[in-house]
Amino acid sequence: MKCSYKLLVVLSVLLVCGSVPSFHIHRNFVADKKCGVEASSNLIHRNPWLVFLEFHDQSDMIDIRCAGTLIDMWHVVTAAHCVKHYTSKLVARFGEYDVSKSKDCMFSVCADPVVKIEVEEVIVPGGYKNYEYGSDIAILKLKYRAPYTDFIRPVCLPTGPINQNAIFVATGWGEMISSNLYSDTKKMIPLPFCSLDDCRRVYSRINLPDDIICAGGVNGMDTCRGDSGGPLLWIRERVELRGVINTGYSRCGTEGFPGLYISVENHLEWIEAIRNGYYDGSIRLILSLN
Questions:
Q1: Furthest-apart CA pair in the chain: how many Å?
Q2: Rounded distance, CA 1 to CA 12, Å?
Q3: Does residue 24 lie within any of the structural domains?
Q4: Alpha-helical runs (H) found in 4-138
Q5: Among 114, 146, 185, 202, which residue's beta carbon has the most beta carbons within 10 A?
Q6: Neighbour tally for 87: CB within 10 Å
Q7: Annotated catalytic sites, by residue?
Q8: Residues 144 and 175 in one domain
């Protein structure tokens, strides 16, 4: 598949350095209060918009793993299939890096304590049926405002069309292809853009909806189970949320089979309407708060 060749240079760097290339953007965030900016290139500052979602049944946390992306102080974008049928307590966990540790420190920098905020409401597009039919996107409205810190920041929404030579970065705490175990730390996975026409040829038995972005198709480089709802990012002048992790081939990281992501640009008007309090045609789920 043609799109996999775009990542040969990136893979060469990975083989030499053993980590994802540093696509960081860092400025004085306090001064400009804008989206898509990281505090530094330290791993602990990377992707401060990534949100770990906690699913609770009464007092216990359920072993469901999904992620989301902070777009402003009140709203998190995730996948509808993660939350559509869930009406119990849902908690958004901000400022998380290593889910196995109570305190995160990297290269002499220690993160602030994790901030947990309950989700008050789940909003899903009215046309959503399931993850195979498109519109697999949801907005979580928080009970309280999320603070902005060096470890908690919003991502930017799309500005303009995607370059056909774009290389995205996906992130989350889902399964690692090498071990099939959930990652304790934020993964950062570079993925080349694949055209929808190429993607439809690969997934010829599936009727891919028009709001799909395809990315990846490189052996061993892919999002996987547990990454659902997390971001597909494009690093430009600032970092933009271009996709929401949807699904993919049953064997993650199989060469020639890119992952499938819901296009945020296709749902931008709906997102802006929800942020401004207009819910016409949307499905609203009020969650149980404790």
A1: 52
A2: 19
A3: no
A4: 8-17, 29-32, 80-83
A5: 146
A6: 12
A7: 81, 136, 228
A8: no
For 230, the domain range is 2-16+156-265
User: By mean pLDDT, which of 3-7, 161-165, 185-189, 209-213 is the weakest?
Assistant: 3-7
Q: Find all residues with CB under 8 Å of 246, minimum gap 6, and list them.
A: 79, 81, 131, 136, 212, 228, 259, 260, 261, 262
Closest alpha carbon to 227 in 177, 193, 179, 271: 177
Q: How many structural domains comprise the chain?
A: 2
Distance between CA atoms of residues 49 and 157, nearest Å: 12
Q: What is the pTM of this model?
A: 0.90
Do 282 and 142 lie in a common domain? yes
Same domain, yes or no: 127 and 255: no
Question: Does 23 reside within a domain?
Answer: no
Is 22 a member of any domain? no
pLDDT of residue 59: 67
User: Confidence band (pLDDT; 50, 70, 90) for 16?
Assistant: very low
Q: What is the distance between the alpha carbons of residues 15 and 159, in angstroms, rounded to a whole number?
A: 33
Name the token pair of 219: 């052996």
Annotate 198-215 with DSSP letters as a single string. Answer: HHHHHTTTS---TTEEEE
Residue 79 · residue 228 · CB < 8 Å: yes
> Phi and psi at residue 2, in whole multiples of 5°?
-55, -40
Each residue of 28-37: b (16+ CB within 10 Å) or e?
ebeeeeebbb
Same domain, 161 and 149: no
102 to 2, 110, 112: CA distances (angstroms): 43, 11, 11
In a domain, residue 21? The reply is: no
Average pLDDT over residues 30-41: 79
The reply to whether 53 and 93 lie within a common domain is: yes
